[in-house]
UniProtKB/TrEMBL annotation, chain B:
Species, as recorded: Cebus imitator
Protein name: Exosome complex component RRP45
Domain Exoribonuclease phosphorolytic: 32-145, 171-236
Annotated Gene Ontology cellular component terms: cytoplasmic exosome (RNase complex); nuclear exosome (RNase complex)
Domain of life of the organism encoding this protein: Eukaryota
Annotated keywords: Cytoplasm, Exosome, Nucleus, RNA-binding, rRNA processing
Length: 274, 415
């Protein structure tokens, strides 16, 4: 906190934008402006934030930089909108790479294409209202299930868990979700089974667990047979053979966020022994 | 904002877990969560954390004219703020007045009006207990300005002139909450937020360490038996004694620190952490009986069926031994397939093989995890019978054979 505070104070006092490269891996606060690498050369140490006029402005190489979550374009600079650590990924081929801010967040904002776990809150006519943790409940049509027709309605009750993806999710409209993919197949989506436990974690942990080759999932899978569903809205559904095992799994996944990998390995080895 | 609805599967799971005497965070039925008390720099300001439930208490005082019908009593006013910071479902502006205890103050022409403001910072179940602890701690911690009475003259001293004096508190009533489930069959002490959602009713007993009951309140309309209430009061007595000891220790510590001139206040109670450092209380998970359960499962499972290893003579000159004999697995159903990740794999394997008279087989292999091999035993001067077999999943049907020509389908399930 002390480090972040001093950084913020310096920034506000000097009103000087810092270069993005120099801040990589450090904490940034909302409202800070960051300079992209090619702009840093033009600024120089004594720059007051004004770009010097140059006749050959167009000759400067234009590198395409992608703004990830937590950043927004503001003129030619990047404006930070979330507090967290600044990250950068080198480009595969061409372009200037991706910049984004790694922040901790528990509240979910619906994004198109995200797979989420929702809770059915109401059935009205042809549409189910599903709570996904956003500002509004999403709507799910009864025809958006695999094999559903007007005569053959899916068996969905109020209070059931649904795993689906968003087809419409923007700030102006109510989000809409479906339980089939573009080919018309369920592909794992639909009503989630009756037993099991649903719990909530931060969004960052979900992304970490869903990353390819996640160690945590492999280690957990070696412990007991289990079923897991991850929703990008921070909800996880777990089912194991007994209640005790399910509770252990839920507690492990919640605690994974706060453990280093060494501590995690210790806990897993202890559980594997018993 | 509407609160997140409780799904059916959560409710079912919680009730089943309670029936098996298991709680979500590994506590026992009568266990309280960790209580943490921290004081602010001012007297009378404290934060109480009961697990993740947090209540901030602040005491202030003022000299006012007494009420006409109660000229000798001071006024004690409680205010509990439930803001949306605590939980999104709370609406602003609603507050509870809790009058749990009445203190008597010294007689003056003016009386002290003590006001206790409690703010709920985070709601994770059992607000009442946390709020009562916060109120008691704040009142014990508070110092009021000193007053001297000479005849008709009342002199109020500022903190610089004379040290403020503590309030005279006779006893410390603490609330203990009991949540009941399944019509009073199961009970839990200090319910979590999720346990509160599935409970049938709540019983609150306010007691002090001298085992005097100050208040009993039952909500939810459950029918309780007399011995249940007595049992709860006994448990409450034990818990209150523990909590009172904790409070006194915390108060002593704070007093010691202030006297020695050390640093005190909320800033000191928060460890120096960076934004990126995480800390969580260790949750003790009971894994002791997992081993026994695993052994039970192994002991009760049937031993694998024996493999027939004697040779089977089909025709003169043709015999078979080992795999590929009668299918000894029987019918495997879909539900036995475990480790079903939501990555999804095709479960239904439809296989339709139609054999022509000429012996040419057309088989459609559509599954990725099973191979089928046709083994044909040709007899001289005899045509293979037309057999039509259909397999779904791993189920196999055999057509009746009239001629000694037998077809064996070797099915190897590749893992």
């Amino acid at each position: 906190m002390a480090e972040a505070a001093s950084v913020a104070a310096e920034c506000l006092a000097g009103c000087r934008a810092r270069g993005a490269r120099s801040v990589l891996g450090q904490v940034v606060l909302p409202g800070e402006e960051l300079l992209l690498p090619e702009q840093e050369d033009a600024e120089g140490p004594g720059g007051a934030g004004e770009r010097p006029l140059s006749l050959n402005a167009g000759a400067r190489s234009r590198v395409r930089v992608i703004c990830g979550p937590g950043l927004r374009r503001c003129g030619d600079r990047l404006l930070v909108t979330k507090c967290g650590r600044l990250r950068h990924k080198e480009p595969g081929g061409g372009g200037g790479g991706v910049y984004w801010v790694d922040s901790q967040q528990k509240r979910y904002v619906p994004v198109k294409g995200d797979h989420v776990i929702g809770i059915v809150t109401a059935k009205s006519g042809d549409i189910f209202k599903v709570d996904v943790g956003g500002s509004e409940p999403a709507s799910l049509s009864y025809l958006s299930f695999e094999g559903a027709t007007k005569r053959n309605r899916p068996n969905v009750q109020v209070g059931d868990l649904i795993y689906g993806q968003f087809v419409v999710a923007n700030k102006d409209m109510e989000p809409e979700m479906v339980c089939i993919d573009s080919c018309g197949r369920a592909n794992g989506m639909g009503v989630i089974g009756q037993d099991g436990l649903l719990f909530k974690v931060t969004l960052g942990l979900i992304r970490k667990l869903l990353a390819p080759d996640c160690e945590i999932i492999q280690e957990v899978g070696k412990l007991y047979p289990l079923e897991i569903v991850f929703g990008m809205n921070g909800r996880i559904w777990v089912k194991a053979k007994t209640i005790q095992q399910t509770l252990i799994l839920a507690n492990i996944l919640e605690a994974c966020e706060h453990m280093t990998s060494d501590q995690r390995k210790q806990i897993f080895s202890r559980l594997a022994e018993s | 904002m509407k609160e997140t609805p409780l799904s059916n599967c959560e409710r079912r799971f919680l009730l089943r877990a309670i029936e098996e005497r298991k709680r979500l965070d590994g506590r026992q039925t009568y266990d309280y969560r960790n209580i943490r008390i921290s004081f602010g720099t001012d007297y009378g300001c404290c934060i109480v954390e009961l697990g993740k439930t947090r209540v901030l208490g602040q005491v202030s005082c003022e000299l006012v004219a007494p009420k006409l019908n109660r000229a000798t009593e001071g006024i004690l006013f409680f205010n509990l703020e439930l803001s949306q910071m605590a939980a999104p479902a709370f609406e602003p502006g609603r507050y509870l007045n809790l009058f749990l205890k009445i203190y008597l103050f010294k007689i003056h022409f003016q009386v002290w009006q003590i006001r206790v403001d409690l703010h709920l910072l985070n709601h994770d179940g059992n607000i009442i207990d946390a709020a009562s602890i916060a109120a008691v701690v704040a009142l014990c911690h508070f110092r009021r300005p000193d007053v001297s009475v000479q005849g008709d003259e009342v002199t109020l001293y500022t903190p610089e002139e004379r040290d403020p004096v503590p309030l005279s508190i006779h006893h410390m009533p603490i609330c203990v909450s009991f949540a009941f489930f399944q019509q009073g069959t199961y009970l839990l002490v200090d319910p979590n937020e999720r346990e509160e959602r599935v409970m049938d009713g709540l019983l609150v007993i306010a007691m002090n360490k001298h085992r005097e009951i100050c208040t009993i309140q039952s909500s939810g309309g459950i029918m309780l038996l007399k011995d249940q209430v007595l049992r709860c009061s006994k448990i409450a007595g034990v818990k209150v004694a523990e909590i009172t000891e904790l409070i006194q220790k915390a108060l002593e510590n704070d007093q010691k620190v202030r006297k020695e001139g050390g640093k005190f206040g909320f800033a000191e109670s928060i460890a120096n952490q960076r934004i990126t450092a995480f800390k969580m209380e260790k949750a003790t998970i009971d894994t002791s009986d997992v081993e026994e359960k695993a052994e039970e499962i192994i002991a009760e499972a049937e031993p694998p069926s024996e493999v027939v290893s004697k040779p089977v003579l089909w025709t003169p000159g043709t015999a078979q031994i080992g795999e590929g004999v009668e299918n000894s697995w029987g019918d495997l159903e879909d539900s036995e397939k475990e480790d079903d990740d939501e990555g999804g794999s095709d479960e239904a394997i439809l296989l339709d093989s139609i054999k022509m008279d000429t012996g040419i087989e057309v088989s459609d292999i559509g599954s990725q995890d099973s191979e089928e091999e046709e083994m044909i035993i040709l007899e001289p001067d005899k045509n293979p019978k037309k057999i039509r077999t259909q397999t779904t999943s791993v189920k196999q049907e055999k057509a009746p054979n009239k001629k000694p020509v037998k077809r064996r389908k070797k099915k190897r399930a590749a893992n």
